[in-house]
């Protein structure tokens, strides 16, 4: 082969950097995208705060007298935090990458396309962390206190609520990402938030579960998000303990197991949707 022929042949200058480097780069890209649109961050907080204010204003005094809940604000704060965690938009960002051709461009680069999915999920963890911290600080300012003795006990309670919310939030983010991968449709992906509404309201969001009756109580008991909500409340000083509940650690363990199983289900759906998308090209 002559020197001129060798010089004319195209050369691949890029080499695979490894999955960890790819995920790190995509995660940083996802976080930059979130920070470039702070209005979306604000909008994701408006609705949870609105429902929190309305619920506490309407039922706060009633709950204290009728339901034996000394702090209805603490009783409602986990609902707002989980509501905000379900407002993640990772699927929206990913479906735009699919529709504008960025997904296809990755196929001709050394970057693994799986890194785009994993990095997007990590980016959504950053968003969930931001939502949760803002709402936790908001709750503390208005007088909500975390269960535990002293300042370190309160810090532990806040970290526990934060960790449980991150676990739930990343599981819910996987739902929108799975829809984005499976459909490639912007409208379908944006509609995934609707899934959370029945899951949220089929929980003891306004009153204790033991006060419910009939089919509604059965539906609430079957909903895994119920146990996440009840576990989240055990990190706060609500003045309420569920009937038949042996300990706070037992309630928290149920919530962690429910959130973990929820994540396992949504991650499985995401993996299946990813394989389908890769086969489609």
Would you give an account of this structure?
The protein has 13 helices and no strands. The chain is mainly alpha-helical and 281 residues long. The protein has one domain (18-52, 68-280). The chain starts with a helix and ends with a helix. Residues 5-13 have low confidence and may be disordered.
Q: In DSSP terms, counting alpha (H) and pi (I) runs of 4 or more, how many helices?
A: 13
Structural class: mainly alpha
Poorly predicted parts: 5-13
**SSE pattern:** HHHHHHHHHHHHH
Oligomer: single chain
Mean pLDDT, rounded to whole units?
84
User: Termini, distance in Å?
Assistant: 35 Å
Count of distinct structural domains? 1
Q: Beta fraction of the residues?
A: under 5%
* Strands, total number: 0
**Tell me, what's the shape?**
elongated
């Amino acid at each position: 082969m002559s020197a001129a022929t060798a010089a004319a042949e195209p050369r691949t200058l890029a080499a695979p950097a490894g999955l960890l480097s790819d995920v790190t780069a995509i995660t940083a890209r996802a976080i930059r995208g979130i920070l470039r649109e702070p209005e979306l961050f604000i909008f994701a907080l408006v609705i949870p705060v609105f429902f929190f204010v309305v619920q506490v204003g309407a039922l706060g005094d009633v709950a204290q007298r009728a339901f034996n809940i000394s702090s209805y604000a603490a009783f409602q704060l986990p609902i707002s935090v989980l509501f905000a965690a379900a407002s993640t938009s990772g699927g929206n960002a990913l479906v735009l990458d699919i529709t504008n051709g960025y997904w296809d461009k990755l196929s001709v680069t050394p970057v693994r396309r799986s890194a785009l999915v994993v990095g997007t999920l990590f980016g959504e963890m950053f968003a969930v962390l931001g939502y949760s911290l803002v709402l936790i600080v908001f709750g503390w300012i208005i007088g909500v206190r975390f269960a535990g003795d002293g300042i370190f006990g309160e810090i532990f309670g806040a970290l526990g609520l934060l960790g449980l919310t991150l676990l739930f939030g990343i599981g819910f983010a996987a739902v929108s990402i799975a829809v984005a991968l499976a459909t490639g449709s912007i409208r379908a992906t944006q509609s995934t938030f609707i899934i959370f509404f029945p899951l949220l309201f089929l929980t003891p969001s306004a009153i204790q579960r033991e006060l419910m009756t009939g089919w509604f109580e059965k539906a609430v008991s079957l909903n895994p998000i119920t146990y996440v909500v009840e576990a989240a409340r055990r990190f706060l000083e609500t003045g309420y303990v569920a009937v038949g509940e042996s300990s706070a650690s037992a309630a928290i363990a149920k919530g962690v197991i429910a959130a973990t199983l929820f994540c396992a289900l949504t991650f499985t759906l995401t993996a299946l949707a990813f394989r389908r998308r890769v086969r489609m090209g």
